[in-house]
Amino acid sequence: xxxxxxxxxxxxxxxxxxxxxxxxxxxxxxxxxxxxxxxxxxxxxxxxxxxxxxxxxxxxxxxxxxxxxxxxxxxxxxxxxxxxxxxxxxxxxxxxxxxxxxxxxxxxxxxxxxxxxxxxx
Length: 121
Hints:
Elements: H1 2-30, E1 33-38, E2 43-46, E3 55-59, H2 68-76, E4 83-88, E5 93-98, H3 108-115
Parallel strand pairs: 1-3
Antiparallel strand pairs: 1-2, 3-5, 4-5
């Protein structure tokens, strides 16, 4: 009689662990901070109120790129040793990747000051 109880406890613990890991994965997927590009000022900026990390998502649909090549070219001109980009043309997004190891003391405010110095396109 004890064997079925142990078996049930093992199943229950496995289920709880699975739900816990699934919840953490879902939480991480939803916490990507946003970046924006001001077409008038031609400045990329990070959301200073969002959680700060090395990755920000930028909606590129308002930029109206006609091809993936045009989007890649645009972001390659903004790429430096401190910031790089990964374009997903199909989803109309670009990941903004910050090299935090080079400037670990910088907050989003300092990064925005730096991003404002990138070439205007």
